[in-house]
Amino acid sequence: MASKPRLLLHICCGPCATSVVERLRRDYEIVGYWDNPNVQPAEEHERRLEAARRFATQAGFELVVAPYDPEPWEEAVRGLEDEPEGGRRCAVCYRLRLGAAAAEAVRRGATHLATTLTIGPQKKAAVINPLGEAAAGAHGLTFVAEDFKKRAGLERSIELSRQHDLYRQGYCGCLYARRRQARL
Known about the structure:
Blueprint lengths: L5 E5 L3 H11 L4 E6 L7 H18 L2 E4 L5 H7 L10 H20 L4 E4 L9 H14 L3 E2 L9 H11 L11 H9 L1
Parallel strand pairs: 1-2, 1-4, 2-3, 4-5
């Protein structure tokens, strides 16, 4: 039996990873990758990271964790603070994180790259997937372009999150989206 291709999965949070891992592990050997400098404050980042670690342990896959450093993210999105969720700030954020994930995929010997980002109800696969394809292509990888919320993926992630008792956050992660949501 031939071995499965190695895929590095950028994970934005534990709950989003649940049904994506379930779907992808049929065809790939998965290595999870946590790099979310957009998530603030630091306590929220740690809470989400802990949920991702718990799920990785329960589901039996390796989770690589990048050092938490929000400064490069803050610099990248400077001037876009007032953008709505899903606007230009988000595209810059996705590009930054997917680029880091692609570089890590090469270091980990992966041939494929994917992200859990498209499972989010506010996240547009039409924006995320081309950015993932560009990042993967720049590193000689194949990007697995899917809209993971489709085919009941979002509903399944909610169900699995409850089964695994994972923390589910109430905002995308960045302070700007959190502040904007609080005003609405």
